[in-house]
Amino acid sequence: MQLSLISLLGAATLAACQNATVTGKLGDARQVRNNPVIGEVWQAKFNGTVKGVVTAVANTVGVNYTIEVSGLAADKGPYKYHVHAKAVPADGNCADTGGHLDSYLRGDSPPCDSSKPQTCEIGDLSGKFGLVAGPTVSKSFNDPYSALNIINLGYIGDRGIVFHDASGARIACATLTKVPTMTHDHGRRLRRRL
């Protein structure tokens, strides 16, 4: 009887550990509702073997992402994609973009549970929204935990977007930069020329 009670307690403890929600040392991510300019556009442009763009647009809640890339080798996927902590350096070395954007100090182990995206690393977009396959990707989604307000923990501006192949190697990277908007005066001058 004692052995079966110990076995039962062990099984219950194991089940509780497996079902425990993993969260960051600073808690769960908070939804972003204070982007300063709704509709503001940021883009990461890929110009190597992988070509295309990842676009991030400030929304009333979080950021709307669109991924439009080609050149991902069909036999090297599925691919993960993340916002990394640093911009891509001038030499283009993807290894120098640091780790995933992890503002709430969660870490990447165990893997992100997409049914609880608030418990994932901010930058783990593929963990929250699914892996992609090559050679071409066209995907859109809203991440309520990404921000384009520099005061938020989920701020993604001027950070690297990195694609990883199935082995985890960083195979393409580009920096999210703000797309300039036409000012009112500039638009008026442009219409006069036409």
Automatic annotation (TrEMBL):
Protein location: Cell envelope; Secreted
EC class (word): oxidoreductase
Primary site of residence: other
Signal peptide: 1-17
Presence of the UniProt keyword Endoplasmic reticulum in the record: no
Taxonomy, superkingdom: Eukaryota
EC number: 1.15.1.1
One annotated Gene Ontology cellular component of this protein: extracellular region
Reaction catalysed by this enzyme: 2 superoxide + 2 H(+) = H2O2 + O2
Keywords, alphabetical: Antioxidant, Secreted, Signal
GO molecular function, one term: metal ion binding
Keyword Nucleotidyltransferase: no
UniProt record similarity statement: Belongs to the Cu-Zn superoxide dismutase family.
Designated name of the protein: superoxide dismutase
Species: Apodospora peruviana
Taxonomic path: Eukaryota, Fungi, Dikarya, Ascomycota, Pezizomycotina
